Amino acid sequence: MTDKKKIEIQGEENENQEQHESQPENTELTDLREKYAQLEAENSELKDKQLRLSAEFDNYKKRQKKLFTQMTEQFRDELITRYLEVLDNFERALAACPIDSQDDYIEGFRMIGQQMLDFLKQENILPIDEREAPFDPNLHEAIHRMPSEEHPPGTVLEIAQKGYRRGDRLIRPAKVVVSHREDE
User: Fold this and answer.
1) Crossing angle for the helix pair 104-122 and 3-95, nearest 10 degrees?
2) Residue 142, helix vs strand vs coil
């Protein structure tokens, strides 16, 4: 064989050898790229899952806070309602005492009654006790109707039991007597 042919054969062998060597490199590189793309997809999926869980947990905390606030308000209103029953009885007892009495005990009870009312004011709990106001079903509970020519129909004539509210929230409606015309 001539040198020229030997060089050509060696060149072909080198090319074949390079192709065989580059094929595993290409396959390995392709495998790595596929693995990288798979890991990127998994990472993206995990990030999305983490964001969803975080948002879900934030919503859970908000719901729990709202529920706790509602339960606290409801408990507070129930407690105030029970307190109001005691106050009503206390006021009835004081009303049975002579107005002009200067007895120290009665005067002391009046002072206690005033403290009870001051407590309600401090808690922003205001009475609903307006006479001659229009009947409002959101604030009043009509327990009786009374004919009246002096007042327009639907006017609060008497308050049998004071109502109370805290801000816009009704704690207890006022029990009232409402006017109506004789012919109604």
Assistant:
1) 160
2) strand
174-180 and 140-147: which strand pairing? parallel
Closest CA to 93 of 112, 76, 78: 112
Cβ distance 117 to 154 under 8 Å? no
Q: Are 175 and 141 in contact (CB under 8 A)?
A: yes
- Collapsing DSSP to helix, strand or coil, 36 comes out as helix
Burial class (CB in 10 A: 0-12, 13-18, 19+), 35: exposed
* φ, ψ at 87 (rounded to 5°): -60, -40
- Global model pTM greater than 0.90: no
With beta carbons less than 8 A apart as the criterion, state whether 138 and 165 touch: no
Query: How far, in Å, are 54, 86, 106, 113, 123 from residue 95 at the CA level?
Result: 60, 14, 11, 11, 25
Domains and CATH numbers, the chain: 127-184 (2.30.22.10)
Per-residue confidence of the chain (184 residues) as pLDDT tens digits?
566 665 666 656 555 555 555 566 688 889 899 999 999 999 999 999 999 999 999 999 999 999 999 999 999 989 999 999 999 999 998 888 877 777 888 888 889 999 999 999 999 999 998 888 999 999 999 999 999 888 899 999 999 999 999 988 899 999 999 998 877 6
In eight-state DSSP terms, residue 135 is: P
